[in-house]
Amino acid sequence: MSRWVRLLAALATLSLPGTYLAAQIDFVRRHSPGIAPAKYWLPQLTRIWLPGMAATLIFALGAFALHRRARGD
């Protein structure tokens, strides 16, 4: 397996828990009793979850494509 495939696979694997951790930190910072959940869920979704999941998907697809290309499939 090439170095690039391993690097992209590692980035995909690490970006998923990194996104979760960032969302949890943001939740703790923004949440306080009496505030409607929509006030912090929508910004968290658009600024943390969507970019994090997109990065994970891009890294994973890149690793998969490079792996398939190296095998000759």
Helix-strand layout with pairing:
Blueprint: H1 3-30, H2 38-71
Short description:
By secondary structure, the chain is mostly helical.
How would you sum up this structure, described in words?
The relative contact order is 0.20. The longest helix is centred in the C-terminal third of the chain and has 34 residues, at 38-71. 85% of the residues lie in helices and 0% in strands. The mean pLDDT is 91. It starts with a helix and ends with a helix. The protein is elongated and about 55 Å long. The protein is mainly alpha-helical. α1 (3-30) packs antiparallel against α2. The protein is built from two helices and no strands.
Keywords:
73 residues, mainly alpha, elongated
Number of helices: 2
SSE string: HH
Identify low-pLDDT runs: none
Sheet with the most strands, sense and barrel status: none
- Got a strand count? 0
Instruction: State the secondary-structure class.
Output: mainly alpha
Oligomer category: single chain
Approximate shape: elongated
